[in-house]
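Field notebook, page 518. I keep forgetting to write these up properly, so this time I am using the form the group agreed on. The chain and the ligand, 3-methyl-2-oxobutanoic acid, are recorded exactly as supplied. Prediction of the bound pose follows.
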Amino acid sequence: MTSTTDKDRVVIFDTTLRDGEQCPGATMNLDEKLAVAELLDTMGVDIIEAGFPIASNGDFEAVSEIAKRTKRATIAGLARAIPADIARAGEAVRHAQRGRIHTFVSTSPIHLAHQMRKTEDEVVEIILKTVAQARDLVEDVEWSAMDATRTGIDYLCRCVESAIRMGATTINLPDTVGYATPEEYRDMFRQVRERVPNADKAIFSTHCHNDIGLAVANSLAGVEGGARQIECTINGIGERAGNAALEEVVMALRTRGDVMPYDTGIDSTMLTRASKLVSHATNFPVQYNKAIVGRNAFAHESGIHQDGMLKHANTYEIMTPASVGLTKTSLVMGKHSGRAAFRSKLTELGLSLSDNQLQDVFERFKDLADRKKHVYDEDIEALVDENLATAHDRIKLVSLSVIAGTRGPQRATMKIDMDSRTFTEEADGNGPVDAVFNCIKAMVPHDAVLELYQVHAVTEGTDAQAEVSVRLKAGERSMTARGADPDTLVASAKAYLSALNKLSATSVRLHAQHAATV
Ligand code: KIV
Ligand code: ZN
């Protein structure tokens, strides 16, 4: 790992795959997690929290696979202060070049009384035992005081001193409920570091939630108070309103190095790619005006701003688009583009595909170029996403036709492949989208309910591809998926089927209802 003793170096701990992934609807499959971890490692993240190994076999497998493959970053596995959790986390990070167990326990009076039902003394006993257990398994142990910001300072200091005494090398003081203000958060770090006698033996860390929109400000204030690790996520995804956004923290430190003299090891030109990858893997769209990575973050619309920009970019631009890896959308590909040009375009976009995947995506690109006048980078990215997301799907859309208009009723006729058999169905609906979804429900009966249906255009123009997001909920599990096509109804069918495929890969049983009609 990069030096953490340099006082100006702030270590970036990314928890996209743990705190980010645990928020409703953001579930990623193993391939998606591996792709995200690889990119985080390449861009210079110091510690990747890859999951919560005791939570499920899938989480365990993801953490251990990431631990085996990652070349540079430390891989952390989360564990409650429970011996079985810690053992499982230790097992998951065993093959990492650098493995960390991150164990946590609540310390605030409200959590102790209502969630843990334990006394302060009992919790200190738990800290002593569990940190020692973790330290027996790995050298690198992080201990977190959950709900630290609502914990009395005396008791917090006692817990921190105990954790460091038992060998914790990083102490994380989270604002679990997103309640602190920057001044309070900075002062908490100052006080703890001043009052705990062995504080110099550990690195202090921030972990801020964004419930009142202060996560990034609080993280930076924590650094001012002496923290040298920031826990954050790509696009700020995470529990409830999310965590501090990695791209915002990194660019704030870079852009305002004059007042915050701290470095991170992040290659900021990879931020845009990381944002897109996580958005596509989780199916969480990035808000247009999101700082650093939003579609409008570098767009200057008003006349006065455009005038200033033309005269000198610094008039309205405090960072260059290139510094976050934003290249201008280019119109480069069309129906006459060959395979070599297509391959080099993929490389330029940072997308790497196997030969089989390339063949498939190239065919789809040709098909799209026949139907759409201009093929933009975003179109190609959408094709690649779809290829990666649907590679292992059991159910695939074969064809769809819909009768719609003012005269009603709206009627859809659909053909699908499921487990290598073909099924067809016709259904009416209250509108064409409803008819399409009714077709799917008739062919593949399931209990999942539609929680979200959203359409947006991948690029501009009336021939733009529509990108549809669908979220389905089955029991406790929610899955979001996307589909893209110049035809909104085809994109809707693809998105719904993709969400069903994702659910079927986890819990929901799907039965094809009708006889095959090839
Ligand atoms: O928000 C929080 O307190 C957490 C801990 C597990 C670190 O995510
Ligand atoms: Zn958290």
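OBSERVATIONS:
- Residues 296-326 form one domain.
- Residues 488-506 form the longest helix (19 residues).
FOLLOW-UP: compare against the apo run.
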